[in-house]
Amino acid sequence: MAYSLAEANLVEARATVKNLKLALANTEVRAPFDGIVDDVMVEVGDYLGVGDPMAILIDLNPLIVTVDVSERHINQIDGTLPARVQLVNGINKEGTLRYRSSIASPATNTFTVELEVSNPDQKLPAGISAEVDLALEREQAVKLNPSLLALDEKGNLGVKTLAGDKVAFIGANVVKAEQNGVWLSGLGDKVDVITRGQGFVRDGDAVEAVRQPAVQ
């Protein structure tokens, strides 16, 4: 009987040791992913209950950039389109499509699109502003200074060009506006734009033009 009691005590002791080892292991907190500790809610020596928060751990790789796309362009958004993301600190990154909403916002009639931006060293912070450039389609265009834009007698937007020794007004469409110029379509493969004195000539006027070197 003494042997059976001792054997039972041994089994109980082993179970106790196992439980203590498990409890000790549970005191070491391991996150399921690599990240950055953003906030700690406890101090050394604090007692915690099950489910009490200890810290906030954030994963910054990848960063998620959220943009709103108009209803006119949402059908052109897919995973094959290149996306250039320029952060407010001037850093440029390539983004890949992560999510495209199928329901428009009732307030703005726009669709939410999410892009993933690689951030392997996690040096880029979350929450900063960014400008996203999505290439929806390819279109041949010429970049010009906005001061070269003109209107014809009907109010159509375009530029004054040379056709031989005469002025020719060509209508154009603004594809994209940037800080240092505008991209115009509808001017063909090659065009000679009047860059000086265009305000003093009209469509059909004969001129003696001085050609300037082409800008590469």
What helical percentage do the residues reach? 10-25%
What's the pLDDT, averaged over the residues?
83
Number of strands: 13
CATH superfamily of the largest domain: Efflux pump adaptor protein, beta barrel domain
Q: What CATH architecture label of the largest domain applies?
A: Beta Barrel
User: CATH fold name of the largest domain, please?
Assistant: Elongation Factor Tu (Ef-tu), domain 3
| Major sheet | 5 strands, antiparallel
| Distance N to C terminus | 101 Å
Order of helices and strands: HEEEEEEEEEEEEE
Unreliable spans are: none
User: Given the C-alpha coordinates, what overall shape results?
Assistant: rod-shaped
Write down the CATH class of the largest domain: Mainly Beta
* Largest beta sheet: strand ordering: 3-6-5-4-7
Helix count from the secondary structure assignment: 1
Estimated share of beta-strand residues: 25-35%
- The tally of structural domains comes to 3
Work out the radius of gyration.
33 Å
Class based on secondary structure composition and strand pairing: mainly beta
